[in-house]
Amino acid sequence: MLNQDRIILMTKLAAYEEDKGKKSSVIMGYFRGDYVWFHLVKSIICGTLAFGIIFAMYIFYDFEVFMTEIYKMDLLAFGKSVLIKYFVSIGLYSIISYAVYSYQYAKAKNNTALYRSNLARLSGMYEKL
Amino acid sequence: MTSLLVAKQALKKFYGKYEVYLIPLMKFLLSFISLLAINAKLKFMSRLDSIVVVLVVALMCSFMPRNFIILSAAAFVLLHVYALSMECAIIVLAVFLLIFLLYFRFSPKDTVLIVLTPLCFWLHIPYVIPIVAGLLGNPSCVVSVGCGTVVYYLLAYVAGSTKAIAGLEGEEVTVKFRFLIDGILSNREMVTTLAAFSITLILVYLIRRLSLDYSWTIAIVAGALVNMMIFLMGELMLDTKVSIGGMLAGTVVSVLIAFVVKFFAFNVDYARIEKVQFEDDEYYYYVKAVPKIIVAAPERTIKKINQRKKQRPVQKNTAPKGGSSKGTLMKGATSRTGGSGGTSSKAVSSKATASGMGAAETARGTEARKRAVEEVSSRMSAGMEQEEAAPKSTEGKSKERQQQGDTGMPE
């Protein structure tokens, strides 16, 4: 006999496996610290590239002035100010990344716990038969 | 209203049934329209401005992942802009890279907004984007809508200053570069639009999440009004030169589209709200349950008044053996008249055997049967009565044959 409750539960489980389940299973393959740090490193690399692009555009925007003043300016101070800006922007971006990936991990953990409890419920339904 | 609800249910059912085909179709349509719009607005590379190229790329997008639409649209834009000027292409590439590196790593599902936002700008209904994104999405959509807005104004500026860029042909690269960046960053209309869209989206999201009756309707109307107010303030303070008539018309159309979206996404009956209160060991619960408006689609039953009679299997047996190409009617006719010619007589003999002739008769063998059949057919052809002329063994066959002929006639 077809059991309507069981079919509904199995459909929900299958839909989860197809959609969010794949992503959640990948995330749950890591420990929380590993997952967040791995993505944080990726974010730092991407942030560095983005900073490089913005810096290059800034230099190129006023390239002639920059080239004429490069001999007069204090290069150490200039480098220091650029580095401070880099660390501040990367720091901000890393904090945002940390928050986003921590949230993603917590969400995946909750989803997986719910999925497992539903699986246990389904298994209980079969045992009753 | 009921008919609309029935249509909605039918549409949902249709979508559920043909989802496998509809999703690629929608991806195809989105990419096709986007690429056509890019080609219409940036006509710098004539090779890309061909329906064949657009069709091929759109077809590829239909079966590739959704983000492929963004990549192909970005590639189209870059190629067009590169044909105009390399400096423009560098700036556009830098903007795209920044968007991809900084934002789309986090929420790749929002990428569709970056295509839809410029598309709605070109259709003169950009105000629909923050309202609908606030209704269906979350506050993080602000960044996607913002990126889409920046892309639109970037492309609009490039398309609008073609002559100026062409006039700087003899100048140095840095001059062109400065001209473009200044033009983009000093665009006050873009700043106003970014502010208006961000505030509208967050406001719509916050209101529609409230536990208010008609919260979605209030969110749509409030979002549209706030959006208009910010644009008017931008007009007064920054002199953005926004067309007020166009803005009003676009807002009205956007509100109508938002109501259509609401009808499909959140259609509830506030007249039948149920409020319940209960408790367990740890909490008190104050629950407000709002029923959805659902109308079951009427089922159509087809009643057959003149039901076609079933054809007997006997007739089916005679058809291939008769070898006639004239159809059922002719086969039935030959069967009733007893058959003239070799094919009919074969059919007769097979029927006689199948209808349960005596064991003695069937044991006579093929020779005797052939002789009997030949005798019957010769008498039939001479115009004699079948019953009189047939021997005992064939008498049963002819009677049966007659029966079969009577019943085997099609209606």
Descriptive notes:
The complex is a heterodimer of chains A (129) and B (411). Chain A has 129 residues and is mostly helical. Chain A is built from 4 helices and no strands. Chain A has one domain (23-128). The radius of gyration of chain A is 25 Å and the shape is rod-shaped. Chain B has 411 residues and is mostly helical. Chain B has a domain at 314-408. Chain B contains 20 helices and 2 strands. A two-stranded antiparallel sheet of chain B has the order 1-2. Chain B starts with a helix and ends with a helix. The interface between A and B is medium-sized, with 18 and 13 residues.
Instruction: Please state the CA-atom Rg of chain A, rounded to the nearest Å.
Output: 25 Å
- Strand residue content of chain A: under 5%
- What's the total count of β strands of chain A? 0
Low-confidence stretches of chain A: none
Strand coverage percent of chain B? under 5%
Q: What is the total tally of β strands of chain B?
A: 2
The number of domains of chain A is: 1
Instruction: Show unreliable segments of chain B.
Output: 316-364, 384-411
Give the ordered list of helices and strands of chain A: HHHH
Kindly provide the radius of gyration of chain B, computed on alpha-carbon positions and rounded to a whole number of angstroms.
Answer: 39 Å
- Structural class category of chain B: mainly alpha
Sum up the structure in keywords.
heterodimer, A: 129 residues, mainly alpha, rod-shaped, B: 411 residues, two-stranded antiparallel sheet, 2 strands, flat, disordered C terminus
How do the strands and helices of this protein lay out in sequence?
The complex is a heterodimer of chains A (129) and B (411).
Chain A: H1 4-27, H2 32-61, H3 63-69, H4 75-128
Chain B: H1 2-17, H2 19-41, H3 51-63, H4 67-84, H5 86-102, H6 111-122, H7 128-136, H8 141-160, H9 162-167, H10 173-185, H11 188-208, H12 215-238, H13 244-265, E1 274-279, E2 284-289, H14 313-322, H15 328-336, H16 342-354, H17 359-362, H18 366-381, H19 386-389, H20 392-408
Antiparallel strand pairs in B: 1-2
Helix pairs in contact in B: 2-3, 2-4, 4-5, 4-6, 5-8, 6-8, 7-11, 7-12, 7-13, 8-11, 11-12, 12-13, 14-15, 14-16, 15-20, 16-20
